[in-house]
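RECORD TYPE: protein structure
NAME: Glucose-6-phosphate 1-dehydrogenase
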Amino acid sequence: GWNRVIVEKPFGRDDVTSKALSDHLAGLFEEEQLYRIDHYLGKEMVQNLMTIRFGNKILSSTWNRENIACVLITFKEPFGTQGRGGYFDEFGIIRDVMQNHLLQILSLVAMEKPCSCHPDDIRDEKVKVLKCIKPLELSDMVLGQYVGNPAGSTAEEQSGYLDDPTVSKTSNTPTYAMAVIQINNERWQGVPFILRCGKALNERKAEVRIQYQDVPGDIFEGNSKRNELVIRVQPGEALYFKMMTKSPGITFDIEETELDLTYEHRYKHSVLPDAYERLILDVFCGSQMHFVRSDELREAWRIFTPILHKIEHERIPPIPYPYGSRGPTEADRKCVENNFIYSASYKWHGNKADASHL
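PREDICTED:
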């Protein structure tokens, strides 16, 4: 027979506790028997990232610092802790979402092409790109904590994080975090990777937004906007490419439009399995492609442990933001400072989600 052990996050609280857990498991099982599960690696569009990148010449040839201005990876939830604050307060949004889900997505977006689709070849490349990232500093971050919105329509929306009876009234645990990550290698040097995640925001959304550089030698009087490749993870899986085109009619005006692959339209008869269903099937099949290896985990904690300790030991105060907002306004400024240009004129109509609510 065989043993396959599924380990669910959190994989420790920092590099020391994670190493202790890994060492303990290593004394009981071989690495090939361990399946550290991050359910985001089971989501359709996250699993699609490798095919999008390495199966399309038009994209693979532009996937570099010469063409891409910045990469924005977003996770937004429209609800707060809802009585789970005691658990959440122990870990916070960085440990809960950023250090695992978002960093895994970053590694798939940024890694070099593996020599095959063998799980270890893929994970080798993910580890290589993570090793090119320095530990985060406070200047790389924006931290927030939601407060009640007096204009909210429900009691929950009018309540802040500290109003949760399971949370200490003096808690400085962030419910929102933005991190600007620089990858020090030939492909990505100078391209900011902006990770942002939060609770009690204006919508539910998880996506990757690849923003290309401005077209040099503009002849359209500043009306041309940047191209963007948007990979919508949830809700409503989609892949669309924002581009400029002439407006229909007799004028020579230009407008933003998109090349759209919305799954509910193109694959409306397909049934997409739940992320955990995919991953548990992978365990039965013995495939570790979509599971986290011990050295990946070690590099992730190396990047985040110093800033987590600084926040906790120095009690760095988070910036208040209203329930149902986009988060701290400082985060928007941080995006602008790191070469992300928000085009408020554009609205995507691929599904009920509105891409103007960045």
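COMMENT: DSSP finds ten helices and eleven strands in the chain.
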